[in-house]
């Protein structure tokens, strides 16, 4: 078993375990911390796939900015395990069964897909490096890039307008 | 690394997110589960982009780069979405002193 495979399995187990803990934790703060662990595991996967730019952007944007925003809102509302609203037991079981059924449907549909000899390139390939992505972004995708700045501006104005006291 | 492994990992993460949305009542946790689903899709897009790069690299040096550009734009949209969504949740909390989605099941009042 090569180092890449060991890292792949380690990161996969970490991602799935942390994702389960996000859903299972009673305390919202613990959920946020487990979600940060998921993002770190997914960034590790990006690095294994040699997509370094996306790995760093994932860490900065998701683990850095978005999760701090979540943590800030949760602390602002002073939530903890005692104030956490709980669904009744049967609704929880029904939700888990519904999610498990979706997983079953996906696995059944993909089990016989003709992908047996398709490989994802790990450790090699330079399309994930910032120079190539930047060239592509500013040649073929420059219009969506500029439109996304308008989206950010409108989101910023919207958040301020919604959050403002009457 | 076979693409199957990445597909099943992403499917598992996505289904955990779906189960979280269905089982929790806290609006913020539901929002976090949606972020989890977005990240599962991102991981799958990057894996497919590397799969196409491996298959087509001989004829096109930047084959498969579009997938990674899409992931970048998904992250951009997710960041904008989170800022507006959390503002809405804070406003709801200010009006009702609760983030329980069962309590907020009607738009009126």
Structural commentary:
The complex is a heterodimer of chains A (166) and B (109). Chain A has helices at 3-24, 28-48, 52-77, 89-111, 130-139, 142-163. With 166 residues, chain A is an all-alpha fold. Chain A folds into two domains: 3-128, NADH-ubiquinone/plastoquinone oxidoreductase chain 6, subunit NuoJ (Four Helix Bundle (Hemerythrin (Met), subunit A), Up-down Bundle), CATH 1.20.120; 129-166. In chain A, α2 packs antiparallel against α3 (52-77). By secondary structure, chain B is an all-alpha fold. Chain B has one domain: Helix Hairpins (Orthogonal Bundle). Chain B is 76% helix and 0% strand. Chain B contains three helices and no strands. In chain B, α1 packs antiparallel against α2 (27-56) and α2 packs antiparallel against α3. At the A-B interface, α1, α2, α3, α4 and α5 of A face α1, α2 and α3 of B.
Keywords:
heterodimer; A: 166 residues; mainly alpha; Four Helix Bundle (Hemerythrin (Met), subunit A); 6 helices; 75% helix; 0% strand; globular; B: 109 residues; Helix Hairpins; 76% helix
Quick overview of this protein structure:
With 166 residues, chain A is an all-alpha fold. Chain A has helices at residues 3-24, 28-48, 52-77, 89-111, 130-139, 142-163. Chain B has a single domain, classed as Helix Hairpins (Orthogonal Bundle).
What is the CA–CA distance across the termini of chain A?
62 Å
Most extensive chain contact?
A: A-B, 81 and 76 residues
* Uncertain residue segments of chain A: none
**β-strand amount of chain A:** under 5%
CATH topology of chain B: Helix Hairpins
Unreliable sequence segments of chain B: none
Q: Give a short account of the largest sheet of chain B.
A: none
Average pLDDT of chain A, rounded to a whole number, is: 88
Q: Give the tally of β-strands of chain A.
A: 0
- Helix-strand string of chain A: HHHHHH
Integer-rounded radius of gyration of chain A: 20 Å
What count of helical segments of chain A does DSSP give? 6
Q: Total domains of chain A, how many?
A: 2
CATH architect. name of chain B: Orthogonal Bundle
